[in-house]
Design goal:
CATH superfamily of the domain at 38-127 and 228-316 in chain A: Probable tRNA modification gtpase trme, domain 1
Strand content of chain A: 25-35%
Largest interface: A-B, 37 and 30 residues
Oligomer: heterodimer
Distance between the termini of chain B: 33 Å
Largest sheet of chain B: 6 strands, antiparallel
CATH class of chain B: Mainly Beta
Helix content of chain A: 10-25%
Number of strands of chain B: 9
Radius of gyration of chain B: 15 Å
CATH topology of the domain at 38-127 and 228-316 in chain A: Gyrase A, domain 2
CATH class of the domain at 38-127 and 228-316 in chain A: Alpha Beta
Number of helices of chain A: 12
Radius of gyration of chain A: 22 Å
Number of helices of chain B: 7
Number of strands of chain A: 19
CATH architecture of chain B: Beta Barrel
Strand order of the largest sheet of chain A: 10-11-12-9-3-13
Helix content of chain B: 25-40%
CATH topology of chain B: OB fold (Dihydrolipoamide Acetyltransferase, E2P)
Shape of chain B: globular
CATH superfamily of chain B: RNA polymerase II/Efflux pump adaptor protein, barrel-sandwich hybrid domain
Chain lengths: ~475, ~170
């Protein structure tokens, strides 16, 4: 890692370079999270001068490898179909996941944009993410080899959070993903932009292997990527009303629950567009939708959403997206998740259904995960570290800050873990953070310290989400 | 005090409106300082400013308008330690927004004699009046400057050079 004291603005204007390095550094230590931290962290948690240290760190290991030798030039970056629209709205563009992406817009600061999303609605361009269609008679079985999800049992038009498991069988997360079953032999799989190359290699290799195995003659699968397509997230309490106003056909959105999806046509520019795949969910903790749009229609349909008016809907960028997902307790690949973290450590055991919890469940790492799912107190392996939420007093604790035992008279301070994401919460007015802590210290209410700029700050382990989620799960009977 | 006029002069057009509106709210409540006309303000490439008094022994430091605007809404300020002697470039504090944390580096070798405690309660002053060194302004600390500090000071950019510097950094 470069000196933590070099020119701040030059760094700020080349965020890609710096944040790649920063992430790479974090990787190198977080894998040995409870052992080698001390020597590497004091450097990391130093901010780097005014105008530095964005939180939107690129997240692919491929990129990191790339960045360690040469910084990607802005010319290498791709543009989403909404690039010109971002510029027209004063989008401040930064490199992210191989794309020019807006971190915020001139109309609202990050905190204001965050609060606007919670009170009204925001539209996020997430077209940088990779939209994949996996089809074939063996599609569900294939996905059940690379993920711990129940893809055969998933109902059509339902989605699940899932994880591509590392091929070394150690139970690590190679990428996190949302899998939607479109039909018995057709799945829509959205993966992280920063993991694009890594995921492509992973899927190509696994698919080639699957398709040539004995007995798979009638279970072949293939993959298609929706290159150049738009993906927008409409998030916030006004999202349903705004979407309803754009639909060209009768759809009872009250019956479209969180985790469900539907194809529907929309009105824009005096035309009918689509049908579009509309999925209820998102990455903010609010009710909302993610809408996949063919390339030629992306700008027109996005403008149709924005036509609801600035008092109801605003564009929002990566800055608000990060603080919103953090308040909602959601993981970001490259921070909370990586090759060396298992779903059990990450608090994502819930993505593994009961019927896939045995050692012979058939996905990569199933034996390791099955043992981890049983706590040590019950004879299993359990886990040695767990993802937790923290409320931090005083200075915000950010990625890389060390979690230590609370300093008390005469007691030696010991290292307990590391913060993986953190920021001042715009909704709560308190500093929130996520991180990994030694098993046993993970219970809500546990008092610890977090080292920020070398000084201990009081922190307490807190249940997540920090801000209650508002997913639409139907009308609850009174 | 002169820093208001100076802020207005120094501000790039895009920052101008914000500065003017915040000034108009606060100016009536605050008497102008009488010493400012004798001060010289210089800037670092890391976006700190320092006013050196006419006696060339004391100064005031802060972060630039350009930096404050680029950082966005600041929600936390870690102030320097009073009494500490620091070298040019040492991290003496930090400013934080929702999305970023940034060090404040010492613009010159100096001793911290007083810190702006108001910022602990009102970090937003840093966004509104970052280059104001009066009470209620966004200044960070008052400092004593020795011979080394004076030499460091001479090497810094004046406001015109700094404006050119930030204009080229924009691209």
């Amino acid at each position: 890692m470069q000196s933590t004291r070099s020119s701040a603005l030059s760094r700020a204007l080349s965020t890609a370079v710096r944040s790649h390095r920063h992430t790479a550094k974090r990787y190198s230590s977080s894998i040995a999270i409870l052992s080698q931290r001390r020597q590497s962290l004091p450097q990391q948690q130093q901010p780097h001068g005014i105008l530095s240290r964005p939180v939107y760190t690129p997240i692919s290991r491929n990129q990191i490898r790339h960045a360690s030798t040469a910084a990607p030039s802005p010319d290498d970056l791709q543009k989403t179909p909404l690039y010109d629209l971002h510029l027209a709205h004063g989008g401040k563009m930064v490199p992210f996941g191989g794309f020019h992406m807006p971190v915020q817009y001139s109309s609202l600061g990050v905190a204001q944009s965050h609060l606007f999303t919670r009170s009204h609605a925001s539209l996020f361009d997430v077209s940088h993410m990779v939209q994949r269609i996996i089809t074939g008679p063996g599609a569900a079985a294939f996905l059940e080899r690379i993920t711990p999800s129940d893809c055969k049992g998933l109902e059509p038009h339902k989605s699940t959070l899932s994880a591509f498991m590392t091929l070394d069988g150690k139970g690590g997360i190679s990428d996190d993903t949302i899998i939607t079953k479109l039909a018995e032999e057709k799945f829509y799989v959205v993966t992280n932009a920063g993991c694009r190359e890594k995921d492509n290699m992973y899927i190509d290799r696994e698919m080639a292997k699957w398709n040539t195995e004995m007995g798979h003659e009638n279970l072949r699968v293939k993959e298609e990527q929706l290159d150049g397509w738009g993906l927008v997230a409409l998030q916030g309490p006004k999202a349903e009303e705004i979407l309803q106003g754009v639909l060209a056909e009768e759809v009872d959105l009250k019956k479209l629950l969180f985790g469900g999806s539907v194809f529907a046509t929309v009105k824009y520019d005096g035309k009918v567009g689509g049908p579009l795949l509309i999925s209820r969910g998102g990455y903010t903790g609010e009710d909302g939708f993610e809408i996949s749009i063919p390339p030629a229609e992306t700008v027109g349909i996005t403008e149709a959403f924005l036509a609801a008016g600035p008092e109801k809907i605003q564009l929002a960028g990566l800055g608000a997206r990060d603080s919103l997902r953090l308040e909602a307790g959601m993981c970001l690949y490259g921070h909370e998740l990586h090759d060396g973290i298992t779903p059990v450590e990450a608090g994502l055991s819930w993505i593994i259904p009961k019927e896939r919890r045995s050692e012979n469940a058939g996905y990569y790492g199933a034996d390791v995960i099955a043992k981890q799912l049983v706590p040590r107190s019950k004879g299993g392996a359990g886990v040695h570290r767990r993802r937790i939420g923290l409320l931090v007093e005083g200075a915000p604790a950010r990625d890389g800050a060390e979690i230590v035992s609370r300093s008390e008279d005469g007691k030696e301070v010991v290292s307990l873990g590391t913060v993986t994401s953190g920021c001042p919460s715009p909704s709560l007015g308190k500093n929130i953070a996520m991180g990994y802590i030694k098993d046993g210290f993970h219970k809500a209410g546990t008092e610890v310290d977090v080292l920020v700029r070398g000084r201990p700050r009081k922190a307490v382990v807190t249940k997540m989400p920090f801000v209650p989620t508002k997913y639409w799960k139907g009308i609850t009977p009174a | 005090m002169a820093s208001i006029a100076r802020c207005l002069r120094a501000a790039r057009p895009s920052a101008f409106a914000a500065v003017r509106s915040s000034v108009s709210r606060t100016v009536a409540a605050r008497p102008f300082s009488v010493t400012a006309s004798n001060e010289i303000r210089k800037y670092t490439k890391e976006h700190e400013w320092i006013d050196l008094a006419a006696d060339k022994k004391t100064g005031v430091i802060g972060i630039s308008e350009y930096a404050a605007k680029a950082l966005g809404d600041l929600v936390y300020v870690e102030l320097p330690e009073e009494g500490r002697t620091v070298n040019k470039g040492d991290a003496i504090g930090a400013v934080e927004s929702v999305k970023s944390a940034a060090d404040i580096n010492a613009p010159v070798s100096c001793k911290i004699t007083q810190i702006n405690l108001v910022l602990e309660e009102k970090p937003g002053n840093l966004n509104q009046v970052p280059e104001d060194d009066s009470h209620g302004g966004g200044w960070i600390a008052k400092v004593q400057v020795d011979e080394q500090g004076l030499q460091d000071f001479e090497a810094l950019m004046d406001s015109e050079q700094y404006n050119e510097f930030t204009a080229t950094e924009e691209h």
